Structure formats: structure tokens, C-alpha cells
Amino acid sequence: MYKIIKQLSDKIFPVRYIFSIMGFICIGTLTYIFLITQTRSLDIYILPTVCLLGWCISLYGIAVSFRNEMPKSKPNDGFFRRVKIRIYRFINWFWSVAFIALTVMMFYISYKSVKLVFV
Q1: For residues 45 and 61, is the Cβ–Cβ distance under 8 A?
Q2: What is the distance between the alpha carbons of residues 58 and 102, in angstroms, rounded to a whole number?
Q3: Pairwise CA distance, residues 3 & 21, whole Å
């Protein structure tokens, strides 16, 4: 699982700044919709904007978090070094599961958004 996410991270790492710019644009759009406009005519754009923001956060997180190789413990490493490596590997495993869960939720929200807007 980690190798697949690492390969994806290597492919999308060069465009990580685009994801951050798009995320800030989504935050600005949501701020404009919620705070500045007083009409309900822009409410149909809330769900697609939240969906796009979720995709931007997910892809930026994958691009940045899984860029480096995970260290492996060696037999001659000390106890605390091995514990540190295991904690680091557990945190990366947790982030992998979290990004997969976020991606599944984004697929669901994207489906609902498309169904809501176009049907």
C-alpha cells in the first residue's frame, strides 16, 4: 500500500503548488459565499467547492507526506532507534489509511454533488 501511495506522490509532487493555490481559491470562494453574498443563488456552489477543497487537501497531503523513503531498522540499531522507526512507520501507515478514507469520502461527496447539481 505504501509503495502505491509513494508512486502517486512522486507523480503529483511537481504540481503540489497548484493544489495549494486551488485550495486557497476554494477557501476564498466559500468565504465569499458565506460572508459576503446575502442571496441564496450561490448555494449550489457550496458542495462542489467543498468537494474540490477536499480533493486539494488530500492530493497535497499525499504529495508532501509520502515523498521520502521510509527508514528500515537494522539489526545493529539500538532499542530507541528501532522504536523511533516503528513509530514513524506507524504514523505513515495511519496517514495512508487517513488519505484513503478521505479519498473514498471525496468520491462519495463528488457523486452526491454531481447528482445534486445535474439531476
Answers
A1: no
A2: 7
A3: 27
- All cell numbers assigned to 8: 502517486
Total residues found in the chain within this entry: 119
pLDDT in tens, the chain (119 residues): 677 878 888 888 999 999 999 999 999 999 998 888 877 888 788 888 888 898 898 888 888 877 777 777 788 888 888 888 889 888 888 888 888 888 888 888 778 777 776 76
Q: Is the dihedral of CA 4, 6, 9, 13 positive or negative?
A: negative
Domain boundaries, the chain: 2-118
Compute the distance between CA of residue 18 and CA of residue 52 in angstroms, rounded to an integer.
Answer: 12
Contact (CB, 8 A) for 72 and 86:
no
